[in-house]
Design a protein that fits this description.
There is one protein chain. The protein is an all-beta fold. The chain has no helices and 23 strands. It folds into 2 domains: 72 residues; 168 residues, Jelly Rolls, CATH 2.60.120.
């Protein structure tokens, strides 16, 4: 702890001993113990001659380094000068009771905090922030915390706000199913647009990949789908304005290992009641002979169904089951 004046480790009372010569009046410099006389204020010194305390009127002390007696001393007289340093109580914060700093505080070393620090203003960290292994960053209740593992992987307990993609569904189809439905748990009013990736293997050789939407929780089977599919090599093209499903491949899919199809599509106008729900994307297909085909496709609910709010999506093949596959759905943040 800093002090104004001489620190208590050096003492606030200093004694200077001199042995006088015949008629000596001025005492200064090094004493019998090699200490150099100094004092801060003449009001805070005591002068003794042969053990008798002199009155301030018996000497002059104005320089801070010299005391002059009015009457010369006798040879071998003992002259003792006791100096008391002037100091002020430091402006400090109590170690035991704590307190408040009204100005800036700078640390040259490390600040260790065992409790929870509270910052009422913005906290600026020019050297970055280091979080303890398996620590968290979040609100007081950790309702929106970021968990950071010891390997540096950050996990968000809540979806980030702002532009970008949120992974909503990451599913593996490990056993045969007649169709795979993405429910309103994932497709709802939270997002107006979604990105879908699917890789599917049919259980039956020579199948086509189809899809339908859900409206109000019910799959839509009527002739309400407009579609367009084209081979990227220009050898195939089809379209329709009143079909009963979306479809994604120009040539039928094989069901041998490595065949099937992979596609990705963008869903838009999911919650619109004035613009029809639309999809657009592309697919890679391996046919029954193991040949690769690439397609571009687009689709939409017909204009008469523009007011339909979509809250689900069904994936299936026109014949047979889905033998296996993976499905990922992302929401595009508004």
């Amino acid at each position: 702890m800093p002090y104004i004046g001489t620190s208590p480790s050096n003492g606030v009372r200093r004694v200077f001993d001199y042995t006088a010569t015949a008629g000596q009046t001025s005492f200064s410099g090094s004493d019998n113990n090699s200490q150099t006389l100094s004092y801060s204020d003449s009001n805070f010194i005591d002068v003794f001659q042969n053990g008798i305390l002199l009155l301030p009127s018996d000497y002059t002390a104005t320089t801070g380094t010299t005391v002059v007696l009015d009457t010369g001393a006798t040879v071998s007289d003992s002259v003792q000068i006791v100096a008391f340093d002037v100091f002020s109580v430091a402006d400090t914060v109590s170690k035991a009771d704590g307190g408040t700093f009204d100005g800036n505080v700078t640390m040259a070393g490390t600040l260790g905090v065992t409790g929870v620090p509270t910052f009422t203003g913005r906290s600026v960290h020019s050297g970055g922030i280091t979080v303890a292994n398996d620590g968290q960053i979040g609100s007081v209740g950790d309702a929106d915390a970021i968990a950071i593992s010891s390997s540096g992987v950050a996990t968000f307990s809540q979806s980030p706000v702002g532009t970008g993609l949120n992974l909503l569904l990451n599913a593996t189809i490990s056993s045969a199913v007649s169709e795979y439905d993405i429910s309103s748990t994932y497709i709802n009013s939270t997002y107006d647009a979604y990105w879908l990736q699917a890789s599917l293997l049919p259980a039956t050789d020579g199948a086509n990949a189809y899809a339908r939407v859900f409206v109000g929780g019910a799959v839509q089977t009527g002739s309400i789908y407009g579609i367009e599919v084209a081979g990227r090599d220009g050898s195939y093209y089809t379209s329709g304005n009143a079909t009963e499903q979306f479809y994604f491949n120009r040539d039928t899919c094989g069901n041998a290992t490595g065949e099937g199809l992979t596609y990705q599509l963008l869903m838009q106008n999911v919650n619109s009641t004035t613009r029809p729900f639309t999809i657009e994307g592309g697919s890679n297909t391996y046919t029954t002979s193991g040949n690769h085909k690439t397609n571009g496709f687009g689709g939409s609910l017909i204009v008469a169904n523009a007011s339909n709010v979509v809250n689900g999506f069904r994936l299936y093949f026109n014949t047979g089951n889905i033998a296996s596959g993976t499905v990922q759905l992302y929401g595009l943040r508004k």
